[in-house]
Design a protein that fits this description.
The protein is α+β, with helices and mostly antiparallel strands.
Length: about 850
C-alpha cells in the first residue's frame, strides 16, 4: 500500500460519522430510484405473466367491437375448419377468504389443450372433464391453495360484480416451473359456460384464441381464411396487442414516478460534493506538503476520485438493499394506484430485476464520481502554495460566485429554450426541470452571500455580536454552507412545486366533480377498477331502481371499450338530459349545436385527454368499430374531463343502440323529486334490490368524497418520494454542519477562551443553523413556484393532456419555510451540542 493510499485510509477511518452520512445520502438516493423501478417492474411483470397465462400459446385472437362477441362466431370458425381454436370468457373475481382478487378464465377443456396444456394438470391425475363441464367447479394453483389453507373439494365464496357464487375446488394446478408458478398464482380456471354465468354473459365470449401456422406463407393463407369467416363487427388481432396496449396505458405514469425518484439522487449528489470538498479543505496542509514533496497532480486526482468511488460503491450497495426493502412496501401502493386508475393487477411478490439493480448501482456510483470531479480538479489545479493557505477556497468561491450565478442563469435559460422547441416530449420537460434545478443551485452561493450580508445588521441589532457572527460565518464558510443550502433549497423547492401541483390538481378535480355530479343519487355495481366501472347492472335491478317512488328524473351510463382507427378507445354512452350542457364543460366547439348533433346524428364528443393523445379535434372524423362494421363519427366538441388520462369518447345512448347490440347499463343517476329526501330515496332503493345484485348506492356528496379519497391515494407514492428527498437534504445539512464543527474547533476554542460561555456558543451555532434553513426556505419559494408552473402546464399536459388551474396555497408556502428551518435546526443539534461541550484547551491544542 502506497503512502497516498495509507493517508486516504487513515482519513476515512478518522471521520466515520461524515463518511457514514455521505454513504447514507447516496444509499437513500439509490434506494428511491431502485425501489420505484422494482415496484414498476413488479406490477408490469405481474400483468405480463397474467396475460401470458390466459393467452397461452395463442398467436392471434378474435375479438368483438366491445368487451364481448357472440359465441356463434366460434361455431362459424369451427365450421370453416379454423383449428386449433378455443373460446375464452375472462374476468375478475374476489375470493372472500383472504380478500384476494383472482383472474377467472373460462375455457373449453376439449379445445384448450393446444393453448394452455398446464391447466389440465391436477393433483389427483387427469381432470374429471364431466364434473368440470357440468358442475360449478374451478381449478386453482396448488401453492396458492396451500397458502389459503384450501384443498380439493372445498367450497369457495366468490364475489363477481356485486353477486356472490359458491364454487367447489375440483382440482389443483401443479406448476411445472417457477415461471408457471408465478403465472397461475392468482388464477381460477372454470368451464366456459360457468364463466358465462359468473359474468352474466350468456351467449357471449370475451375472445377466441387461435394458433396460426409458423410458416409465413401458410400463416397468411390461414389468417385470410379466418377473416373471411368473421361476421361484420368482429376483428382479428395479434395476441400481444393487449399487453402492448396496457404498457401504453401506464407509460406516462411510470415515467413520472421514475423522474421524481431521481430527485433524491440529485440531492444526494450535493451531499457527495460537500463531503469531498470538505475532505480536500481539511487536508489542504497534507496535500500541499505531498505536492511539495513531488506527488503529481494526477496522483492527487486519483486519490480524491478513489475515495469518492469507495463512498459510491458502499453507498450504492447499501442503497440496493434498502431499495429492495422499500420496494416491498411501495409495490402494494403502486398496485393500488394502478387498480384505481388503469386495470386490475394483483402483485403477489416482488420481481427483482438484475438490470434494475445494475442500473441503480451504476447510477449511484456515476453520480458520486461526477459530484467529486469539481473538488478533485480543485485539489489538483491549485498551485502548491495556494493549497497550503487556509482561506484560498473561500475567497475563490466568493470571487467566483457572480460567475457561477451567470452560468446558472444560462443553464436555466437552456431549460426554458428546451420547453419552447419541444411540444410533446415528457423527457424534454423533465430535462428542462433538471436545468432549472441545476441553474438554481449555481445561483445559490451568490444568493446566500447577498441574503446573509443583508440580514447581519438586523441580526446584530436583535441579538448582538452573536447574530452578526452567525450571518458572517455562513459567508466565510461558503464552500460548505452554500452547497448544503443549495441541497436543502432544491429539496424544499421540489416539495413546494409538487405541493402546488397537487393542490392545483385537487382543486381542479374538486370543481369538476361539483360541476359534473349534479344528480342526487348514483348507482353502479362494485368494480375492481375505481375510475372505470367494468361491471354491468343486472337488468332486473335496473328496472326495480327506476320504479322506486320519489324519482323526478334518471339517466343511464354505459361504458365499453371499442376499437377506433386511432387505437383502443373507452366509449361512454349517455342519455342527454335538460341539464347535460351544464354537466359537460366544453374546451372547444359550440355546446348547443354540438349536443343537437350528438342527439340526432352519428356524432360524438371527445374528452380533452383523448383529443391531446390522438390529435383529434372539432371537425375531425373518428372511425369506430361497431356491430355494423367500421363507421365514421363526426367530432363535434372537446370537453374537460379529469376522470381518465387515457381519454373518453362520448355518444348519445340512442346512437349507441343504433350501432351496438348492447342493452347493458354500467350505472344509473337519479334526481329526487321535491317531496322526497335523498336519504329516504337511497333507503328505498336499497330495500328494492335487497337480495339481488350487490350495488353501490351513493349520494352526490358520498361519491364526491370517495372520488377525492381515491385522488389523494394516488399521490401517496409522490408524498413518500418528497419526504425521502428532504431526508437526503437533511443529511446534507447535518454533514455540512458537522464538517464545519470539525474544521472550526480551534475557532470555537478561541471564543471559549475569550470568555464565551457554552450556552452562547450553542446559541451562536443554533442561530447559524436557523439562518441557513431560513435562507434555503426563502430561496425555495420562487424556485418551487417555477417548478410548479412547469409541472402543471408542461409535464402534466404532456403526460396526460389535462388543463389544470394553477393555485398557490399559502399553507404550502408556510410549510416550506417551517420545514426548511426545522430541518436545519434538527441537523444542527448534534454539532452544536458537541461544539458547546468541547474543552477550549483541547480545541486549541487540536487546532
Amino acid at each position: 500500500m502506497t503512502l497516498l493510499q495509507r493517508s486516504s485510509r487513515r482519513y476515512l477511518t478518522q471521520h466515520p460519522w461524515l463518511m457514514g452520512l455521505s454513504v447514507l445520502g447516496v444509499a437513500i438516493g439509490v434506494a428511491v430510484v431502485v425501489s420505484i423501478d422494482l415496484a414498476n417492474t413488479s406490477a408490469s411483470r405481474a400483468f405480463e405473466l397474467s396475460a401470458e397465462t390466459v393467452t397461452g400459446a395463442a398467436t392471434h385472437q378474435v375479438v368483438g367491437t366491445g368487451e364481448t362477441l357472440d359465441d356463434n362466431v366460434y361455431r362459424r370458425l369451427r365450421e370453416a375448419g379454423v383449428r386449433p381454436s378455443a373460446p375464452i370468457v375472462e374476468g375478475y373475481a374476489t375470493l372472500q377468504r383472504g380478500d384476494r382478487t383472482f383472474q377467472v378464465i373460462g375455457i373449453d377443456p376439449l379445445a384448450d389443450a393446444a393453448f394452455r396444456p398446464y391447466l389440465g394438470t391436477g393433483t389427483s391425475g387427469d381432470l374429471d372433464l364431466g364434473a368440470f363441464m357440468t358442475q360449478d367447479v374451478a381449478l386453482m394453483s396448488a401453492p396458492t391453495a396451500r397458502e389459503l389453507s384450501l384443498s380439493s373439494g372445498d367450497t369457495l365464496q366468490v364475489d363477481v360484480e356485486g353477486s356472490t357464487y359458491s364454487v367447489s375446488l375440483l382440482g389443483l394446478i401443479e406448476p411445472r416451473n417457477e415461471r408457471t408458478r408465478r403465472s397461475v398464482a392468482n388464477l381460477l380456471v372454470v368451464d366456459v359456460s360457468m364463466a358465462q354465468r359468473l359474468f352474466d354473459q350468456s351467449g357471449r365470449l370475451s375472445r377466441i384464441d387461435l394458433l396460426a401456422p409458423s410458416d409465413e406463407g401458410t400463416q397468411t393463407a390461414y389468417l385470410d381464411r379466418v377473416r373471411q369467416a368473421l361476421p361484420e363487427g368482429v376483428q382479428l388481432r395479434r395476441s400481444d396487442t393487449r399487453t402492448e396496449t396496457v404498457a401504453q396505458m401506464t407509460k406516462a405514469f411510470d415515467l413520472n414516478l421514475t423522474a421524481l425518484s431521481l430527485l433524491a439522487l440529485i440531492v444526494g449528489a450535493f451531499l457527495i460534493y460537500n463531503t469531498m470538498t470538505f475532505s480536500i479543505v481539511q487536508r489542504r496542509g497534507l496535500l500541499g506538503r505531498l505536492r511539495a514533496l513531488g506527488v503529481t497532480r494526477a496522483q492527487v486526482f486519483r486519490l480524491v476520485l478513489g475515495e469518492a468511488a469507495v463512498l459510491g460503491v458502499v453507498g450504492s450497495g447499501l442503497g440496493l438493499l434498502l431499495g429492495i426493502v422499500l420496494a416491498s412496501g411501495l409495490v402494494q401502493l403502486l398496485a393500488q394506484t394502478i387498480n384505481d386508475l388503469y386495470f386490475v393487477v394483483e402483485v403477489s411478490e416482488l420481481s427483482i430485476s438484475t438490470w434494475t439493480l445494475a442500473k441503480g448501482g451504476l447510477l449511484g456510483l456515476g453520480t458520486t464520481l461526477l459530484a467529486a470531479l469539481p473538488p478533485a480538479r480543485e485539489a489538483t489545479n491549485a498551485p502548491v502554495s495556494t493549497v497550503l493557505r487556509r482561506s484560498t477556497q473561500e475567497t475563490t468561491l466568493q470571487r467566483r460566485a457572480p460567475w457561477w450565478a451567470g452560468l446558472g442563469l444560462l443553464v436555466a435559460g437552456a431549460g426554458i429554450l428546451l420547453l419552447l422547441v419541444t411540444q410533446q416530449s415528457i423527457w424534454a420537460g423533465y430535462g428542462a426541470l433538471f436545468c432549472l434545478l441545476v441553474g438554481a443551485a449555481l445561483v445559490t452561493p451568490l444568493a446566500v452571500m447577498v441574503l446573509a450580508n443583508g440580514v447581519w445588521p438586523l441580526l446584530g441589532r436583535l441579538t448582538g455580536v452573536i447574530g452578526r457572527m452567525a450571518a458572517r460565518g455562513i459567508v466565510a464558510n461558503l464552500s460548505r454552507t452554500g452547497v448544503a443550502i443549495a441541497a436543502l433549497t432544491v429539496a424544499i423547492a421540489a416539495t413546494v412545486g409538487v405541493g402546488i401541483m397537487i393542490d392545483s390538481f385537487r382543486g381542479t378535480v374538486s370543481d369538476w366533480l361539483r360541476q359534473s355530479l349534479q344528480a342526487d343519487v348514483y348507482v353502479q355495481p362494485p368494480s375492481l377498477v375505481f375510475r372505470r366501472s367494468t361491471a354491468t347492472l343486472d337488468s332486473t335491478v335496473a328496472a326495480r331502481l327506476r320504479g322506486v317512488e320519489g324519482i323526478a328524473a334518471s339517466y343511464s351510463v354505459r361504458r365499453v371499450t371499442v376499437q377506433a382507427d386511432v387505437g383502443r378507445t373507452e366509449l361512454v354512452a349517455v342519455e342527454p338530459g335538460t341539464n347535460t350542457e351544464e354537466i359537460y364543460q366544453f374546451k372547444s366547439g359550440n355546446p348547443e349545436t354540438a349536443w343537437d348533433a350528438v342527439r340526432s346524428s352519428p356524432s360524438v364528443l371527445v374528452s380533452e385527454p383523448y383529443s391531446y393523445r390522438y390529435d383529434v379535434g372539432v371537425g375531425d372524423t373518428l372511425r369506430l368499430q361497431t356491430d355494423r362494421g367500421q363507421r365514421p363519427f363526426a367530432v363535434k366538441g372537446v370537453y374537460f374531463d379529469y376522470g381518465s388520462d387515457l381519454g373518453v369518447v362520448l355518444m348519445s345512448r340512442s346512437t349507441y343502440e343504433q350501432y351496438y347490440d348492447d342493452q347493458g347499463v354500467s350505472g344509473l343517476a337519479f334526481t329526487a323529486d321535491d317531496t322526497t329526501s335523498v336519504d329516504a330515496l337511497i333507503a328505498d332503493m336499497r330495500a328494492s334490490v335487497a337480495g339481488l345484485q350487490d350495488v353501490l348506492i351513493r349520494s352526490n356528496k358520498a361519491l364526491r368524497e370517495t372520488s377525492m379519497q381515491v385522488f389523494d391515494r394516488t399521490f401517496t407514492i409522490t408524498t413518500v418520494l418528497r419526504l425521502l428527498a428532504i431526508a437526503v437534504a437533511f443529511i446534507g445539512v447535518l454533514t455540512a454542519l458537522m464538517a464545519l464543527a470539525l474544521e472550526r474547533r480551534r475557532e470555537m476554542g478561541v471564543l471559549r477562551a475569550s470568555g464565551m460561555t457554552p450556552p452562547q456558543v450553542g446559541g451562536y451555532l443554533t442561530l447559524q443553523s436557523s439562518l441557513m434553513g431560513a435562507i434555503a426556505g426563502l430561496l425555495s419559494l420562487p424556485l418551487g413556484y417555477v417548478l410548479a408552473y412547469v409541472l402543471v402546464f408542461v409535464i402534466n399536459k404532456r403526460s396526460f393532456g389535462w388543463t389544470l388551474q394553477l393555485t398557490v396555497p399559502t399553507g404550502v408556502l408556510l410549510q416550506a419555510l417551517v420545514l426548511a428551518v426545522v430541518a436545519a435546526l434538527l441537523a444542527g443539534l448534534y454539532p452544536t451540542w458537541r461544539m458547546a461541550r468541547s474543552s477550549p484547551a483541547v480545541a486549541l491544542q487540536d487546532g
